[in-house]
Automatic annotation (TrEMBL):
Domain of life: Bacteria
CDD domains tied to this protein: PRTases_typeI (cd06223)
Residue ranges constituting the Phosphoribosyltransferase domain according to the UniProt record: 52-159
Annotated InterPro entries: Ade_phspho_trans, Adenine_PRTase, PRTase-like, PRTase_dom
Species assigned in the record: Aromatoleum evansii
Swiss-Prot/TrEMBL keywords: Cytoplasm, Glycosyltransferase, Purine salvage, Transferase
Protein name: Adenine phosphoribosyltransferase
Protein localization: Cytoplasm
Reactions listed under catalytic activity: AMP + diphosphate = 5-phospho-alpha-D-ribose 1-diphosphate + adenine
Pathway per the UniProt entry: Purine metabolism; AMP biosynthesis via salvage pathway; AMP from adenine: step 1/1
Entry EC no(s): 2.4.2.7
């Protein structure tokens, strides 16, 4: 059974902040969506309903807004949560992956025991822009022997090419809404 939800309500709850963090950037701010209890519940339900019948072993959330949604979804799916952190934030043995951002370069890390060989992982973040962070996180999980079942986000910014990059790399993608042409 497929459940269809009207996600226009969620898209309308996302605030656009022009020229932040630099001129010409239209920042998609999810905090109003998280502050609205109905919108936040609907958002979580969209993900939980999508993944509740799939064999997911763990949810991996990307620093920092992916932690918010990822941990709640993991809790609702009754699976563990794995943080994919910015470099230097984890206290145990880590593996690292460098990637390019819209505004420069960065590194993400995860603990070496965060996922096991054969784990089926839902990788989640707030948005897909250039796709660099999501690709780096997927590469980390693959290095640990885990399989990314799907890369999911609230927002897709398709004009920045990230979702195409991820699909071209063989990742399945799910996003709640996109902001193309805006």
């Amino acid at each position: 059974m497929t459940i269809q939800l009207d996600t226009a309500f969620l898209k309308n709850a996302i605030r656009t902040v022009p020229d932040w963090p630099q001129p010409g950037v239209m920042f998609r701010d999810i905090t109003p969506l998280l502050q609205d209890p109905k919108a936040f519940r609907l958002l979580v339900d969209v993900f939980v309903l999508r993944y509740m019948d799939r064999a997911i072993d763990v949810v991996a959330g990307i620093d920092a807004r992916g932690f918010i949604l990822g941990s709640v979804v993991a809790h609702q799916l009754n699976v563990g949560f794995v943080p994919v952190r910015k470099k230097g934030k984890l206290p145990f043995t880590t593996i690292a992956e460098d990637y390019e951002l819209e505004y420069g370069n960065a590194t993400v890390e995860m603990h070496t025991d965060a996922a096991r060989k054969g784990d089926r992982v839902l990788l989640i973040d707030d948005l897909i822009a250039t796709g660099g962070t999501m690709m780096a996180a997927a590469r980390l999980l693959a290095r640990l022997g885990a399989e990314v079942v799907e890369a999911a986000a609230i927002v897709d910014l398709p004009e920045l090419g990230g979702s195409k990059l991820l699909r071209d790399a063989g990742l399945e993608i799910f996003t709640v809404c996109d902001f193309s042409g805006h």
